[in-house]
Amino acid sequence: MLPEDDRFEPIGDPHFDRLVGETRSAAVAGHLLDWLALAHSAAAELQRVRRRSARGSWANGWSFGTDRYQYLLATASGLPDARVNPAFQSMTIGIGNCALYQYRAKTGSPLTSVLDDTELQRRLVRPPEEPPGLFPANHAITGGRDLLFLPWTGSEAAGLSGAWVGQGSADRDYRIRWSWLWPLTSFTRGYARTAGLGGPLTARPAPTGTTGWNPHDLPELPLRHRARPQEGTSGT
Predict the structure, then answer these.
(1) How far apart are the first and last CA of the chain?
(2) Half-sphere CA count of 92, side-chain side, radius 13 A
(3) 3-state SS of 132-174?
(4) Contact, 50 vs 59, CB < 8 A?
(5) pTM above 0.85, yes or no
(6) For residue 218, what are the contacts with CB-CB under 8 A and spacing of at least 6?
(7) Would you state the pLDDT for residue 38?
């Protein structure tokens, strides 16, 4: 189920259309919503597999979050014209003239979002340098593109419950001061998922190796004891 964000009051003047292209902004926003929603449903399915394990249930909040992120990472390349950069212990996605950084709004609301978990996050939300240097501090992460934040909320039980896109920088507590922030659903008018740019995203298993995994299915490797080196040789 996709989120209904009509109750959210948008902030500022959005630049989403300009950065991803006005003719395709609805399709890109729709694909991003599908991508986030499918990650929640795929991770929830893996949780059910974990609970049915013959070795006992090993489903928890940590495993759900890990499966969800791995699904996002594995399927990000299916977004329209996406250039995925999984470096820096996280993921940024280049689409059009922007670099998208997706993250879970751990406070439950993008208005109180805090980004301080990694050095990447601290670099991304720092205010612009004064005076500006030859290259900004986050140039290597964004590739010189405009940075857009993509905060979202969701859980195993509720699925994806909210998704927004915006720009801003952090205060001293790394809480984002938004220059603009809009629900992704605001840009999906006229978008038909069955005829969207690049076709609809389809769910596929996250690459965790948990579904139907059986150690007896592993191929037999031709292992043998290593011969002892003869006296007076290096053994190489």
Answers:
(1) 60
(2) 23
(3) CCCCCCCHHHHCCCEEEEEEEEEECCCEEEEEEEEEEEECCCC
(4) yes
(5) no
(6) none
(7) 94
Q: Give, in order, the Cα–Cα distances in Å from 133 to each of 65, 88, 136, 227.
A: 37, 21, 6, 60
Number of H helices, E strands in the chain: 5, 6
What are 49-78's pLDDT values in tens digits?
877 766 656 666 667 888 899 899 999 988
- CB contact at 8 A, 181 and 138: no
Q: How many whole angstroms separate alpha carbon 115 and alpha carbon 113?
A: 7
How large is the C-alpha radius of gyration of the chain? 22
Tens digit of pLDDT for each residue in 220-235? 445 455 555 555 555 5
Sheet with 98-104, side-by-side order of all strands: 83-85, 92-95, 98-104, 146-155, 159-170, 176-183
Q: What pLDDT does residue 134 have? A: 57
Phi, psi of 2 (to 5 degrees): -90, 155
How far is Cα 81 from Cα 61, in angstroms, rounded to an integer? 32
> Which of 161-165, 211-215, 231-235 has the lowest average pLDDT?
211-215
**pLDDT more than 90, % of the chain:** 22
- In whole angstroms, how far apart are CA 215 and each of 209, 210, 218, 222, 224? 11, 11, 6, 17, 20
Length of the chain in terms of residues written: 236
CB 137 within 8 A of CB 129: yes
User: What DSSP state is assigned to residue 74?
Assistant: H
CA distance 173 to 171: 5
